[in-house]
Design a protein that fits this description.
The complex is a heteropentamer, with two copies of chain A (269 residues), two copies of chain B (400 residues) and one copy of chain C (339 residues).
Chain A lengths: L19 E10 L2 E11 L4 E6 L5 H8 L7 E6 L2 E2 L5 H6 L2 E4 L11 H5 L6 E5 L3 E4 L1 H14 L16 H15 L3 E5 L7 H16 L3 E5 L3 H7 L2 E6 L2 E7 L5 H9 L3 H6 L1
Parallel strand pairs in A: 3-10, 3-11, 6-9, 9-10
Antiparallel strand pairs in A: 1-2, 1-4, 4-5, 7-8, 11-12
Chain B lengths: L6 H20 L5 H17 L6 H26 L7 H17 L4 H26 L3 H20 L5 E2 L3 H5 L4 E2 L1 H28 L7 H23 L4 E2 H19 L1 H11 L1 H6 L4 H27 L1 E2 L8 H11 L11 H21 L3 H22 L3 H4 L2
Antiparallel strand pairs in B: 1-4, 2-3
Chain C lengths: L21 E7 L7 H17 L3 E7 L4 H13 L4 E4 L8 H9 L3 E5 L10 E5 L1 H15 L5 E5 L6 H20 L3 E6 L6 H14 L6 E4 L2 H13 L15 H9 L5 E3 L2 H16 L11 E4 L4 E7 L2 E3 L5 H5 L6 H5 L4
Parallel strand pairs in C: 1-2, 1-3, 3-4, 4-5, 5-11, 6-7, 6-8
Antiparallel strand pairs in C: 9-12, 10-11
Helix pairs in contact in C: 1-9, 2-3, 4-5, 6-7
The chains are: A alpha/beta (269), B mainly alpha (400), C alpha/beta (339).
The complex binds adenosine-5'-triphosphate (2 copies), beta-D-xylopyranose and magnesium ion (2 copies).
Chain lengths: 269, 400, 339, 400, 269
């Protein structure tokens, strides 16, 4: 029923297996039906943009895939196998890394600790009991990645509580880039970024895709979307209403799908 | 464009004085304010009663704070998580009861200790499970637990009353002292070990081109440690030497300070305390962290109880009662550990225990009437933490 | 259910079935200031009642040191249909409220061990608290060398009894302090009767007096144990007289070891037996034999008919003829207090 | 484009059942889970001891919780702010001492009450000032305060011991009952008042075209209130009538529930507790809010102390000691008030006090041995809050 | 030294008095000198955009003006008089309203309560003591304002904790619009907003300015900036480095000033 299969992978060459398949998920919070029927796919090396109006359910969708919330109905498949993402740890182990819209950093820890949180470089002193942190190595590894994102940062031992909005966002993005091995989910990763930093992040997204990583990115900025996305999935009121190949779509079509002013046109397409 | 990691540059700019100015401005003073408060308290008591700073009284003081210190460490772990443990004193009572009863049945003393610790651990696991898996607030779980363990204590000792310890090994925990020469040897080992660690780390950082502590700053730290430990050991040796129970406390503090500051597990405790949801999203198993921390707290409660029983030479239905609970939480909080999670250190608990212990000890020396004691204790406590708060005043703006 | 009393069990479950049955409530103050309440008073009292009239149930409550808890427990007992309250008040003054409630409900009250002041109490069974302090003081007076230094570790200032013990001791010792025959080197009340506080106080005293301590008046055996611990650390245990109270197994043990010198033995079994006889007679509507009630004590409201027992000083010498002979405890228990 | 305020539509969609399903899903159950736990506790105790639900015992229960209830209200205010007050029990002790000493000096009883309340208020202002202006954590200020007030209490009463109250007016606070007919009249007034308020508000909303409660839902609420109050008053009238102290407690609960839920000041308390910095940035004077709340807590402590003294007919150096502090905090927390601020209500404190009071009262009726009592009390407490936690399980995901 | 006087008010007609003057403020946080030398002015009815790289000090500047932080050095004047903004309450009383980058909402309160926080409509029952909240009126007044911002919202009694990123931002903006009588400070007000909502907010900004309110808006989105701003103030590393009239400036000039690649050109201008 949805045009989900109509992607640019649907060509003559043997279609690779999708990295991620989200099938008809639904989610209700108390009186609010946040997701009614959401389906989407991400192939390896593909950049998919998830767009939609405020409150359309984009962040909720991402939280389902990253294991922060669990769907009421519907299935999620990773590399063809159904998975039960009961916690973010499960998603991480599957190689899924996420930048959340609210950034989710530990304010009381410093920049380096946040970058490596849950994945600290360590030396095992007593197996299974004491793992000593390799602080200097962590700092050493952090520097080039942050540099790549082109941002002014205070000393790396600064608590993230005192960072500026863009600096915080950069830390969160760097974290996902450092660890995302298969699928990277980015919820408005450039919302707080300056011109140069935005460009750096978009470049990074493209480079990740080149390496074969699947990228699902949420953005309200259509020019960013068209710069990086292979495919554009549109959510409206908790439903996927369009699944478009970026190259074959015009901006106004996407906007129309978002606002719902031309639903018929698109689904008829 | 250019990423300017301002670190190196800035730290050299102002030199040592500049670093201190920045630190004071940022409120990053660590233990200094509490230590300042402690010194003030000591000076006051010493000026009122010349016995206060005698080697003998310092030795007493150390033994007096050993139990609160142990409990304070356990409570610090819990507070770092942003939880609270109201049962830690009751756990110490139950552990003491287990210890004396088993010892009374002529069980090998080491087995008695082990059993008491295991009881503490089991209680901790149970509480951690209830808080974490069922999701009942720690305040309630540990309050209910505290009632339950008081009941168990009564079931154990209600019919016998006070049970003395006869076993010399158990009594010795709180009654023996390190010989003078060994005390000095320990000072040497401590300073040398600290120096080795510090130099190793800083050289590693220099090699990697990271900002590192200046040689001057390192020297200062070493000298400070050296002077303090020489003075303390000297004073204690003028009496009977370093009390073994005090040494055990110190070992625990150093060990747990290492664990919280330098291990993956410790880092994760701070993360969970700072932002539980962020820690969870980072893939940290916050459940196991919490269960482990509650277990640790139970174990520390038990160890405290063992030391307490050894010192008193007995356990009774009153063990773990009285002000012990509030004193242990206060030890952690006075030192600067936040009740809201994510901020503090094990060293704080030691400093806090010293503050509380000094005030009580000083007031006992003055043998003031109970009413005066309470009022003065309250007053000193308030003033000590006020000093701490004012000196790190800017912290408020930066934090939370 | 309301199946009526008479099952004779003396444990708690009797409470529910006793509507209309015969019931006595035993309200004791705490479990921490002294072990006696759980180890002596309660079992002795229950045993005696059962022997005298098996159809009577005993409703036992312990207030854990809180006077308002005790009030709640008294109310529960009255609700449960108790005909007599045997109360060892947490607080001698505030328990008057309980007596008033009992009077209104037509329930008789025996003030047990501690007097309930300013209230219409029916009987009083006890030892004399000031007398306890006096016995301790006298022991110190007799066993301290002339000019010797005395340390006093008193009970909790929040416990009326502790004040009375201290008063008794001071009544004996203050003239000696004044005349210079003895010197008071240190005195402190001990919050909560908590032995670890007591230990700290004794350590402070020893530090302050540079170990020149010739006698220690410790208000009860729990504090005496802590004092001995502090003395032992200075090699002084057994060299300095230490008093006590309650004749606990731990205290008697220390007396046998020679580290504690005396304890004031309040023959609790006798006290409990007396109270039980009185209570049973009241419940069974029997006349009270005049041999039971030997005196009257004024409690501020009236002269209360009283049965007063003499506290006895127990030392190593008379241990056999007192506590052992009375069956208060056994040599076996004294040697192994944990059994 | 279109703004869809989904409210009206959604609430009608599912009807009453739908609303409940949504509420359960969202964990918005208010007092229901605690009440459920309470009913379970009552059924259990009643089945073991048939006196439990007798009018007489209910009357006792109400008097028994009056003091904890008052302190619980004060503590709730503090917890809503995200602070804690460890001194509230000690304040109640000092207020009780002031009351009895003044009354002993034959001061007019109303003046005695006023003086006690003023003392509570002054202490509250002092603590609020220290927490707010100096910035010392409330935990420390109130812990130090608690020590200090205990000292003051001892200075007042340490040499005299317990001081009884002779004045009949003061004794009557906790010893008088509302006559039967007046009890019934109060039921009528309460139900009618609630009905008038409810209908007034909902009509106002309808007039403005806002979503409003359905007539059926309103009827249900009124019927529930009516049935509960008829049963309670009926039971109490079978003994001596509604205890005046209980009525005073109820008046305070209703008054403060109104203040927290429906006034600007109350809204600001929640705001400060939810996000201090956001409240500050909204221009709220968070300092004055905090000082006022600490003052209120001091006043409630004093009022609790007055009721406690009246009930006990005296005050003593032990007044305000024992488990009173933890019980009052627990009353608030059991009811569902968060220790982290911004969530909870005054009604919770009443419910929590009822839970604690019922457990203690029930265990007393059973006259179990002390050890059993402690264990069972702990167990019931844990289970009660576990029921509460499980039924509102989804809350965790939504909140914090 | 700075070109601060070079605004479009610098014409023949008698220059109105500036609403806000910020003069050479400096601010240090521990080891970080966040602001080195910041000066700017806002005239009544004028929209000033404050732009700069991430970490340049934009949010810190706004916090000084809204009373959240106090400058170490320098002065702030409102309507020509020096003011000491020691707390946000002081700024509010001067008619200054702010949308903060971190939004600063009370998560435990509902939408309406957040909108009216600190300014609740009430009925005084006991003067100075009990002010009863007029809930229905507040709700009634909130609806049209939220409608104007064109966003989907759950029921107004929903806790803001459960709102989506854009919904939260809308609440914060609506709050400032409701109460800003003289000067409105907006720190990236459209960062989380969808296309339509962004347009609604930009329209609102223009309407505020028409009413004579001064608006200082921070944004990384240059097209937004050029749509609404009369003047553009550029911060770099804590210093005001340019003060440009929007109509006379090209996009690349602004970007150059932000990144510092053409500093000489601009100051020489
Ligand atoms: N935890 C929650 N509880 C209740 N409602 C929620 C919760 N999370 C999301 N919602 C609701 O679900 C809907 C979708 O929210 P979501 O955050 O997914 O939107 P979004 O598409 O990311 O919007 P934005 O572009 O504004 O970030 C919103 O109406 C929101 O209010
Ligand atoms: N409370 C604080 N403590 C320490 N440093 C701070 C604090 N607030 C800001 N800073 C530092 O000051 C500098 C300026 O921060 P600010 O938030 O003003 O930047 P910004 O221009 O708003 O950036 P962005 O575009 O990323 O929001 C940053 O380097 C930041 O790390
Ligand atoms: O027997 C003593 C008792 O009377 C007192 O109240 O508390 C301490 C006990 O030793
Ligand atoms: Mg979103
Ligand atoms: Mg900013």
């Amino acid at each position: 029923m949805s045009p989900a299969t109509q992607t640019h992978h649907d060509t003559a060459e043997p279609a690779p297996r999708p990295l991620l398949q989200v099938e008809h998920i639904r989610k209700r919070f108390g009186a609010v039906q946040a997701l009614q029927d959401v389906s989407l796919e991400v192939y390896p090396g593909e950049v998919v943009a998830l767009v939609g109006d405020n409150g359309a359910g984009k962040s909720t969708t991402i939280k389902m895939i990253s294991g922060v919330e669990t769907p009421d109905e519907g299935r999620i498949l990773v590399e063809g196998r159904e998975v039960h993402l009961t916690s973010p740890a499960v998603a991480e182990q599957l190689g899924i890394q996420t930048v959340y819209q609210d950034l989710a950093l530990c304010d009381n820890l410093d920049i380096v600790s946040n970058l490596f949180l849950g994945r600290e470089l360590h030396r095992t002193l007593i197996p299974g009991v004491i793992k000593s942190i390799r602080k200097a190595e962590m700092e050493e590894r952090a520097i080039p990645i942050l540099k790549e994102l082109g941002i002014n940062l205070p000393p790396l031992s600064t608590q993230v509580a005192s960072l500026s909005g863009g600096q915080r966002q950069t830390v969160a993005v760097a974290r996902a880039v450092l660890w995302g091995s298969k699928l990277v989910l980015l919820d408005e990763p450039t919302a707080a970024l300056g011109v140069t930093q935005t460009k750096a992040v978009l470049d990074l997204i493209l480079r990740l895709a080149e390496k074969g990583v699947g990228v699902l990115v949420i953005s309200h900025n259509m020019s960013d979307v068209f710069q990086v996305a292979d495919r554009i999935v549109v959510l409206r009121l908790g439903k996927t209403v369009a699944n478009l190949t970026a190259k074959e779509t015009r901006l106004d079509e996407v906007v129309a799908a978002i606002t719902g002013s031309a639903e018929e046109v698109l689904t008829g397409k | 464009m250019s990423m300017q990691l301002r670190e190196g540059k800035q730290q050299q700019q102002g030199g040592l004085a500049g670093v201190w100015r920045d630190r004071i401005a940022a409120g990053e003073l660590g233990l200094l304010p509490v230590m300042l408060a402690l010194v003030v308290i000591w000076i006051i008591f010493q000026s009122v009663n010349s016995h206060f700073l005698s080697g003998r009284n310092m030795s007493n003081l150390i033994l007096q704070i050993a139990e609160i210190g142990m409990l304070g460490i356990g409570e610090t772990f819990i507070l770092l998580l942003g939880e609270i443990d109201l049962s830690i004193a009751a756990v110490s009572g139950v552990a003491a009861a287990v210890l004396v009863l088993m010892s009374g049945a002529h069980v090998n003393p080491w087995l008695c200790i082990l059993a008491a610790v295991v009881v503490g651990a089991v209680i901790g696991v149970f509480q951690g499970f209830w808080v974490t898996i069922i999701g009942v607030p720690a305040f309630i779980v540990t309050l209910a637990g505290s009632l339950g363990y008081q009941g168990i204590l009564l079931a154990f000792l209600g019919n016998t009353g006070t049970v003395p310890i006869f076993n010399q090994t158990l009594l010795n925990i709180a009654a023996s002292y390190v010989p003078g020469w060994l005390g000095w040897a320990l000072v040497v080992v401590a300073v040398a070990g600290y120096a080795a660690g510090l130099i190793g780390i800083q050289q590693g950082r220099r090699k990697r081109n990271l900002s590192a502590m200046s040689a001057r700053s390192m020297t200062w730290r070493l000298v400070l440690l050296g002077v303090v430990s020489v003075v303390v050991v000297g004073a204690l040796n003028s009496y009977r030497g370093v009390p073994v129970a005090g040494l055990i406390l110190l070992v625990f503090v150093v060990l747990f300070a290492y664990i919280t500051q330098a291990t993956v597990f410790g880092r994760h405790i701070y993360a969970v305390g700072g932002n539980k949801e962020a820690a969870r999203r980072a893939g940290i198993n916050i459940r196991s962290i919490r269960v482990i921390v509650f277990t640790l707290s139970g174990v520390m409660g038990a160890i405290g109880g063992i030391i307490g029983a050894s010192r008193l030479g007995s356990a009774s239905p009153a063990s773990g009662g009285g002000d012990l609970l509030l004193d242990s939480i206060a030890a952690a909080v006075i030192g600067g550990t936040s009740l809201f999670g994510g901020r503090g250190s094990v060293w704080n608990a030691l400093a806090g225990a010293l503050v509380i212990g000094s005030v009580e000890n000083g007031m006992d020396l003055l043998s003031a009437p109970s009413s005066t004691k309470y009022i003065v204790e309250g007053g000193i406590l308030l003033i000590a933490v006020t000093i701490d708060t004012m000196t790190r005043n800017r912290r408020k703006v930066v934090g939370r | 259910g309301s199946s009526g009393g008479g099952n004779g069990t003396s444990n708690g479950s009797g409470g529910s079935g006793s509507k209309g049955g015969k019931m006595i409530a035993l309200l004791l103050p705490d479990t921490t200031s002294s072990a006696r309440y759980e180890t002596q008073d309660k079992p002795d009292f229950e045993k005696e009642v059962k022997a005298l009239d098996p159809s009577i149930t005993v409703d036992y409550e312990n207030a854990q040191g809180s006077d308002s808890t005790q009030q709640q427990q008294a109310e529960a007992a009255i609700t449960n249909g108790a005909q007599v309250l045997v109360i060892d008040p947490v607080d001698s003054q505030s328990a008057a409220t309980i007596v008033n409630e009992a009077n209104q409900a037509g329930v008789k009250v025996i003030s047990y061990d501690r007097m309930i002041e300013n209230a219409k109490v029916d009987y009083y069974v006890s030892f004399d608290n000031e007398e306890v302090g006096k016995l301790q003081g006298e022991y110190i007076a007799q066993h301290t060398p002339k000019g010797g230094t005395v340390v006093m570790i008193d009970g909790a200032q929040t416990d009326n009894n502790a004040l009375q013990f201290a008063q008794g001791a001071h009544a004996v010792l203050d003239p000696l302090f004044k005349s210079g025959q003895l010197r008071k080197g240190y005195e402190s009340y001990t919050p909560n009767w908590d032995p670890s506080n007591g230990q700290r106080e004794m350590e402070a005293a020893l530090t302050k007096l540079n170990n020149k301590v010739n006698a220690v008046l410790a208000a009860n055996d729990g504090l005496a144990g802590a004092v001995i611990q502090a003395l032992a650390a200075q090699g002084l245990a057994g060299k300095v007289p230490v008093t006590g109270q309650d004749a606990t197994d731990a205290g008697l043990h220390d007396i046998m070891q020679g580290t504690q010198s005396m304890t004031v033995y309040k023959a609790v079994p006798k006290e409990a037996k007396l109270a039980a006889e009185l209570a049973v007679d009241i419940v069974d509507n029997k006349p009270i034999p005049s041999s039971l009630v030997n005196t009257k004590v004024n409690n501020g409201a009236e002269d209360v008919p009283a049965a007063l027992l003499q506290p006895v000083v127990v030392t190593k010498q008379n241990i056999q003829s007192t506590v052992i002979k009375d069956g208060f405890t056994t040599m076996q228990k004294i040697e192994h207090p944990s059994s």
